[in-house]
Amino acid sequence: MTPQAGQRLKIVLRTGTVVDGILEEWAANQVQLRSLDGDSILIIRHPDEDIVLIKIMLDNSEKKKTEPEENKTELEKKFDEVHQKSDPFSDLSNKSLADLKVEIAKQDREIIARKLREHRPTVGQGLNQYVYPGTSIKSEGAKHGHTRPSKK
């Protein structure tokens, strides 16, 4: 597939250099890219040998950045609906947005508190006993609050 003139491209060259620009001309013996600011033109003389990877960037109208809806709670969905419909200068809509933000924060605090209450440490993970190398002296510092070896 050959890119078309006017498309935004990111090209990775054999040297590892990444080039970004608008395609002016694509021929068998050379490629011309105009910089994004329009101040310069880059010419690649042997595209078949030098180009490793071509990425065609889509227009802003073609790409859609949407958040996954399945991760949102009811309050967050309602907040998004009201926020999209609202007039930023309307006091009534600002009050309802503020109330929704407070409710979302309250719900988050409740979820965190519930998780902290329900947390149980895993069974079988007790304090470790360490043996000093070359001896049979065991450290019981974790039990008694000190780190010096016990003398037995």
Strand order, sheet with most strands: 4-3-2-1-5
Percent range for β-strand residues: 15-25%
Number of helices: 4
What's the story with the biggest beta sheet? 5 strands, antiparallel
- Helical content stands at 25-40%
The low-pLDDT segments are: none
Order of helices and strands: EEEEHEHHEEH
Structural class: alpha+beta
The assigned CATH architecture of the domain at 8-57 is: Roll
What is the CATH class of the domain at 8-57?
Answer: Mainly Beta
Distance between the termini: 78 Å
Average pLDDT = 77
Integer-rounded radius of gyration: 31 Å
Global outline = flat
User: How many strand elements?
Assistant: 7
CATH topology of the domain at 8-57, anyone? SH3 type barrels
Task: Annotate the secondary structure layout.
Layout lengths: L7 E6 L4 E9 L4 E4 L6 E4 L2 H4 E7 L16 H12 L5 H28 L11 E2 L6 E2 L1 H4 L8
Helix pairs in contact: 2-3
How would you describe the overall organization of this protein?
With 152 residues, this protein is of the alpha+beta class. Among the domains are: 8-57, Roll (SH3 type barrels), CATH 2.30.30.100; 69-117. Helix content is 32%, strand content 22%. It contains 4 helices and 7 strands. The chain has helices spanning 47-50, 74-85, 91-118, 141-144; strands at 8-13, 18-26, 31-34, 41-44, 51-57, 130-131, 138-139. The strands form 2 sheets. A 5-stranded antiparallel β-sheet has the order 4-3-2-1-5. Strands 6-7 form a two-stranded antiparallel ribbon. β1 and β2 (18-26) form a beta hairpin. α2 packs antiparallel against α3 (91-118). The model has no long low-confidence stretch (mean pLDDT 77).
